[in-house]
Specification:
FAD/NAD(P)-binding domain; Helicase, Ruva Protein, domain 3; nine-stranded mixed sheet; 22% strand
C-alpha cells in the first residue's frame, strides 16, 4: 500500500468512502471487489478510533436472543462464520463460562434451554470452516465442581454449575481492519490515511465529491465521486452538519463503550461472564442483570464493557480515574476475589458506538440499536450521498455489502455479485493456523521463538513471507525488539507496505507492541530509530514522535 495523494485527485471515482474504520474499510473492499473505482480516505490512521478500541469480540448473536431478535441472531452468526473463514489468522473462537445459581432465571436448566435454542438457531455456524481450531463448538453445561476447577475463587454459595457458549475473539482489531483496506487496494482502490473530509461538493442537489485536507502536507484536495459513502462513525453527523442542506433527520445516540486491560490473567482459554449492576430494559429473556465479561487477552485479562450515553464532541470523550474506579467497584462486587485496583489497570480502551435511545444519566440503558444505512435522496432529496453508521464490527462486512448494493442501484449499474463472504482477506489464505505457525517456527528458530512465530502468523497470515523477506539482506531485522514478540522487520514492513507514517501507527496499529501494557522505553526507542533511519527524521522529529506515543498510552494514571 502506497500513499499516493495525486491518485485521489486525477479522476472521478464511482465511490468515495469517507472513514477508514471497520465499516468504511469493508465498504471500500466490497465496492472495489465488485468492479467499482473507489477512493478511501481516513482523517487519522486506519482503525484509530472505535474499531480498534472495542472489547474485541466477534459476536455470534447470543445477546440478541434475549431480545428475541432472531434476524440479528442469524445475521451475527453468519458474519462470525465468514470472519472465521476469510480471516482465520485474526479471529478465533472464545469459549465463555456463565455460572448458574439457584432455581430461578439464573439456574442451570433455564440457561441450558436458552443455549439449546441458540445452538438450534445457529446450526450452520461452522459451515465451510475447514480448520478444526476455527470451528465454534456447541454450547454445553458443566457441574459445580468443574466450574470451580476453572475459576476456584468464584462465590460457591448457591453455585449449581455453568453453561458454556463460544463467541469469536479478534486477535488484533487494527490489523483486521488493515486487512480489509489492503484487500481493497489489491482490488484497485486508492486509499490514504491522514486525509480529512471537510465538506461535500454539491451541484444541482447532487453530491459530486468532497473537499478534503491532507493533514500531513496541509494541502487542500478535491476528490470527485459519483457517489460518496459517509462511513465516519460518530463523526458522520458532524460532517453532515457542515452544510445545512444535508442531514439524517433524527439525531443518533452514541455511547462511550469502555473496557480495560488488567495485569491479572484468570484463565488461558475461557472467558467468564459475571452479573453487573445494570439491566437491559429491552430484553425479553433476561437473567436479571447484564453480564460483565472477563476475557483472556495475551498475558492479561480484558474486562468490560461499560456504556455511558455521550452527546458531546467525538474528539473530546475520555475515561477518567473516577470512571475507572466505578468500573472496578462493579467488577469487584461481581467477582470479589479479583480485588482489582487502579494499579492493576495497564490500559483502557474506549470508542463511541451507535446506541439505543436512552436519556442522559440513565442507569439501565437500551441496547437494541441497529446499524443505520441512509440514502439521502430519500430523506433530503440529495442525490449521490449515502451514510452508513454501524453498531458492531462483527457485521461490518455484511452492512458494507448492503451499502454497495444501494450504491450500485443509485449508479444504475448491475455490478458483479458480492464475493467478500467467500474470498480470504489479505493474509487470510491459510488452511490450518497451527500448521502455519509451526512452519514459521521451524524455519526461523535460530532468530526467534514460538511467541514471535505466533505473532507473525496472527498479524500477517499468508503475507508472512513478505515481512521476513526484509531480513534476507539484514538478518538483524529477524530478531525481536527487546523482550517483545515483534521482530524489527515488522517496523520496516509497516513503512514500506502498510502506509504507516508515524511512530504511533506502528506501535498501536501495525504491531502488537501496545496491545497490552506499555512495552517499555527501549522497545519504543528501537522502533523510533528504525523509522528515523528509513524516513530521514531529524532528532527533533524523532523526539516528538516518541513523546506522542507515550502521551497516547492510557493507563490508570491518565
Amino acid at each position: 500500500m502506497k500513499r499516493d495523494i495525486g491518485s485521489l485527485t486525477d479522476k472521478q471515482f464511482d465511490v468515495v468512502v469517507v472513514g477508514g474504520g471497520a465499516f468504511g474499510a469493508c465498504a471500500a473492499w466490497e465496492a472495489s471487489s465488485r468492479g467499482l473505482s473507489v477512493a478511501l480516505v481516513e482523517r487519522s490512521d486506519f482503525c484509530q478510533a472505535a474499531s480498534a478500541n472495542h472489547f474485541k469480540i466477534v459476536h455470534g448473536g447470543i445477546r440478541y436472543l434475549q431480545h428475541m431478535d432472531i434476524k440479528r441472531v442469524r445475521e451475527s452468526s453468519r458474519e462470525r462464520n465468514i470472519l472465521l473463514r476469510i480471516a482465520p489468522h485474526l479471529v478465533k473462537p472464545l469459549p465463555i463460562i456463565v455460572p448458574t445459581y439457584g432455581y430461578g432465571s439464573k439456574s442451570k436448566p433455564v440457561l441450558k434451554a436458552g443455549l439449546s435454542l441458540y445452538d438450534l438457531l445457529t446450526f450452520d455456524r461452522n459451515a465451510r470452516i475447514t480448520d478444526p481450531d476455527r470451528r465454534v463448538p456447541a454450547s454445553s453445561t458443566i457441574s459445580r465442581n468443574q466450574v470451580l476447577q476453572h475459576f476456584p475463587q468464584l462465590d460457591p454459595d448457591g453455585l449449581t454449575g455453568a453453561g458454556i457458549f463460544a463467541d469469536g475473539q479478534m486477535l488484533n482489531p487494527p490489523r483486521l481492519v488493515l486487512a480489509f483496506v489492503q484487500s481493497a487496494v489489491e482490488a484497485g482502490a486508492v486509499a490514504a490515511n491522514y486525509v480529512e473530509a471537510q465538506k461535500f461538493h454539491i451541484k444541482d442537489k447532487r453530491v459530486i465529491g468532497i473537499q478534503a485536507l491532507d493533514r500531513e502536507s496541509g494541502d487542500s484536495l478535491d476528490i470527485s465521486g459519483r457517489v460518496v459513502l459517509n462511513a465516519a462513525g460518530p463523526w458522520s453527523e458532524r460532517l453532515l452538519d457542515q452544510q445545512p442542506a444535508l442531514g439524517m433527520g433524527t439525531r443518533q445516540t452514541f455511547s462511550r463503550d469502555a473496557c480495560f486491560i488488567v495485569r491479572k490473567k484468570l484463565h488461558d482459554i475461557y472467558g467468564l461472564a459475571v452479573s453487573g449492576r445494570t439491566s437491559d430494559p429491552d430484553a425479553v429473556l433476561s437473567r436479571e442483570k447484564r453480564h460483565l465479561f472477563i476475557a483472556p487477552w495475551r498475558d492479561y485479562s480484558l474486562v468490560g464493557v461499560w456504556h455511558v450515553v455521550y452527546n458531546g464532541d467525538p474528539d473530546q470523550f475520555t475515561v477518567t480515574r473516577n470512571d475507572l474506579g466505578e468500573f472496578l467497584d462493579e467488577v469487584n462486587e461481581a467477582y470479589p476475589h479479583l480485588n482489582l485496583n487502579l494499579k492493576d489497570v495497564v490500559r483502557w480502551n474506549a470508542g463511541l458506538t451507535l446506541f439505543g435511545d436512552s436519556q442522559d444519566g440513565s442507569k439501565n440503558l437500551s441496547y437494541g440499536k441497529r446499524s443505520v444505512l441512509c440514502d439521502h435522496a430519500d430523506s433530503f432529496q440529495i442525490e449521490g450521498l449515502v451514510t452508513l453508521i454501524g453498531v458492531r464490527a462483527t457485521t461490518a462486512r455484511g452492512m458494507a455489502e448492503k451499502a454497495v448494493d444501494m450504491i450500485l442501484r443509485k449508479l444504475n449499474r448491475r455490478g458483479a455479485p458480492s464475493k467478500t463472504a467467500r474470498i480470504p482477506v489479505y493474509g487470510g489464505d491459510i488452511d490450518r493456523v497451527a500448521s502455519h505457525v509451526n512452519a514459521i517456527q521451524e524455519r526461523y528458530a535460530s532468530f526467534f521463538g514460538t511467541r514471535a512465530a505466533e505473532a507473525l502468523s496472527q498479524n500477517y497470515g499468508s503475507a508472512v513471507p513478505q515481512v521476513l523477506a526484509l531480513g534476507e539482506a539484514d538478518p538483524n531485522l529477524l530478531t525481536p525488539i527487546g523482550s517483545t514478540e515483534t521482530i524489527k522487520a515488522a517496523v520496516l514492513y509497516a513503512l514500506k507496505e502498510e502506509m504507516a507514517l508515524h511512530l504511533s501507527d506502528v506501535v498501536y496499529r501495525r504491531t502488537e507492541l501496545a496491545s497490552g501494557a506499555y512495552p517499555g522505553d527501549d522497545a519504543i526507542t528501537v522502533c523510533a530509530d528504525l523509522m528515523a533511519a528509513e524516513l530521514g527524521w531529524d532528532p527533533g522529529r524523532r523526539a516528538s514522535e516518541i513523546e506522542a506515543v507515550k502521551n497516547q498510552f492510557q493507563g490508570a494514571d491518565s
